[in-house]
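Appendix B, Record 12. Input sequence as logged:
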Amino acid sequence: MSEASVLALAPIRADQPVSIRAEVSLADPDSCKFTLSRSLHPGGPCFFASKAGAAGSPLVERLFALGGVASVLIADNVVTIGKAPDVSWTGLKAAIGGVLRTHVVSGSLAILGTAASSGTPARSDAELGAAVQELLDREVNRSIASHGGKISLVNVCDRRLFITMSGGCQGCASSQVTLRQGFEAMVTRVAPEITEIVDATDHAAGRQPFYPRAAAATLLAS
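Logged structural output:
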């Protein structure tokens, strides 16, 4: 879940308009996703955890030069920025948008080969799944076990994470709060490449259904 805003940036050239949509994550307020109308780096996602790792890549260096930028993840036309906790998005979002827009219009490479190799290489779906499973085993399920709940990994496909919730979490009215405000933020920390978390749980089958059985029956019948 996120708050979305469109950065009002007039194009430098009328025949090359560039639109940028900024979405601050509600689960992790220190993370903001910038979706551009053009591709920045079609060669696969690349994550930079520090300014030092961005050496040689003009775009990433410029982003880190902005006060408060702590991490940069570039995947095709999406740039996810992590900021320092004590820095406000006010002003920073516009500055980041300006850097991205100027770079796209320039036609320069976003990530040079040397910079990409020094950053964190893109992980496979299997590797992302392993990272999430470790998180579930080490932190998440130990925490929600006291409430009789459990989150299980179903699959990771094209950087989309599929999970199910069982026990006390299945059908619980607060399950979506648990998922969006807690688990989602944890996943962002260990696997920033994940683009979406899909809850495949049949909540209508739980004892306290988040989705009322009557409503579920109506949907199935329609």
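The domain at 125-221 is CATH 3.30.300.130 (GMP Synthetase; Chain A, domain 3).
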